[in-house]
Design a protein that fits this description.
With 278 residues, this protein is α/β, with parallel strands linked by helices.
């Protein structure tokens, strides 16, 4: 009996391709290696000052300086919200990079920045980001810690707090950058009522219609992830974004070519054979 179980275990053991890859994982490894190599190549070119494809102009990002400048001229503050998701959310992480740019610009223009948070851990990170941005701008004395505010962990308590702040402080620019849910339209409507220039960015597809309807400028989906590279022109960020976009182009091209070949002669399709074998 035990011998039969031993033989069954041997027969059911997974096979290894080329002695090192689990069966069916060679293609995944090769694609990952090619794309990592492509991203690394683009980063290396950007660091060396060599030309790489430009990131296209995004109207909402170009309007950031204009919105902050308008607030400066009017003597009114700028409001920045990173959304209501926790610190490990990809959209929140993208919001950190944009907050650094907005805070530094506000410091240079001597414009008051009010930054509101729902999550306490996001609040702690944003406190340090804003403090560092003012320090890098050479204006540490202009930084007011009380303007980086944790309002509430409850979604609509946070919303009510932001709306109340809008009524009292009347910011001239409202920048909403991150993961938003049902609170987005409420905040945007009040922002419109006080005449604020509103720039929104989110990857939440259910909220994009509200951003498009109520905000002056909207960054859709992956535009918000490319924003930090677009604004900072930092070589590593630019190379990463360009490398990822080229990887997508390669994938789309392979899908189109494979589909055409599959319809012409399914048996002669090299892509199908490769994927089945590896």
């Amino acid at each position: 009996m035990f011998g039969g179980l031993w033989m069954l275990a041997d027969n059911d053991a997974p096979t290894a391709t080329w002695g090192i890859f689990a069966d069916g994982e060679v293609a995944n490894f090769l694609f990952a290696a090619i794309f990592i190599g492509l991203i690394y190549y683009m980063i290396s070119r950007a660091r060396a000052g060599m030309p790489i494809p430009e990131i296209r102009k995004i109207a909402g990002l170009d309007a950031l300086d204009e919105a902050i400048g308008r607030a400066t001229e009017m003597g009114r503050p700028v409001h920045y919200s990173p959304g209501i998701s926790p610190v490990d959310n990809a959209q929140t992480i993208a919001a950190f990079a944009m907050l650094s740019y907005v805070a530094k610009t506000c410091a240079q223009y001597d414009t008051r920045l009010i930054q509101t948070n729902r999550n306490i851990f996001v609040h702690a990170v944003n406190e340090e980001i804003v403090k560092q941005a003012y320090l890098e701008a050479g204006r540490p004395d202009a930084h007011n810690p009380d303007d980086v505010r944790w309002i509430s962990d409850f979604q609509f308590a946070y919303t009510a707090g932001v709306i109340g702040m809008f009524s009292r402080e009347r910011p001239a620019a409202n920048i909403m950058y991150g993961s938003f849910f049902a609170e987005s339209m409420l905040i945007l409507e009040v922002g419109d009522m006080i005449g604020a220039v509103q720039i929104g960015a989110t990857a939440q597809t259910a909220q994009l219609p509200f951003f498009m309807a109520a905000a002056d400028y909207t960054l859709i989906g992956e535009e918000m992830y490319a924003a930090s590279a677009y604004m900072s022109r930092e070589p590593v960020l630019r190379g990463t974004v360009v490398g990822q976009d080229l990887a997508r182009i390669i994938i789309f091209a392979l899908i189109i070519i494979g589909t055409i070949v599959q319809h012409i002669d399914p048996e002669a399709n090299p892509f199908t054979r490769f994927l089945r074998e590896f």
